[in-house]
Here is the input.
Amino acid sequence: KQEVTQIPAALSVPEGENLVLNCSFTDSAIYNLQWFRQDPGKGLTSLLLIQSSQREQTSGRLNASLDKSSGRSTLYIAASQPGDSATYLCVTSPRGYQKVTFGTGTKLQVIP
Amino acid sequence: EAGVTQSPTHLIKTRGQQVTLRCSPISGHTSVYWYQQALGLGLQFLLWYDEGEERNRGNFPPRFSGRQFPNYSSELNVNALELEDSALYLCASSSDQDYSPLHFGNGTRLTVT
Here is the structure.
């Protein structure tokens, strides 16, 4: 059974700092890995999707990497802003989303 | 492009009642997934619909059911509500293309009293 762990569980940083969120998964047989953010009481907003054959994806200030062999993914956020404050989830899936596994989440607070 | 839409946004029901939640996927997406996020817990997979058929369900009792309509919108029905059904119910959709991302709605917050 896939297990997805995110470290740290919570993080508080001053505005402008670069930061890295970590995601570890136990089963490397994934089809893709997706990073989401969730604001309190809201749904999940897709940030980046990395295909199993890819090593990284970038979108604006965000960069996600994937190392399947070691079961790790990282989300790098450059020049953090207060609007980045949210819970970040990494989600792994085999082909098809009926067996997705959600990570434990990292709650990020960026202090102005 | 409109995202995944869910209705209602909030709902308060009494134990034993029945509730119906609705979801409209992104245009062109044929798969709809339902998840439950109870307070303080992670997301749990409920149901998957594709092309009008239920394809898979998670470890939930039969009083959780649903359907998908020809326009790919979906309903989640919960009968005989229990207090522990209080949660945020999230709907997500994806297309059938390889590596299609999963897109979520903003959810329906159900409170059972």
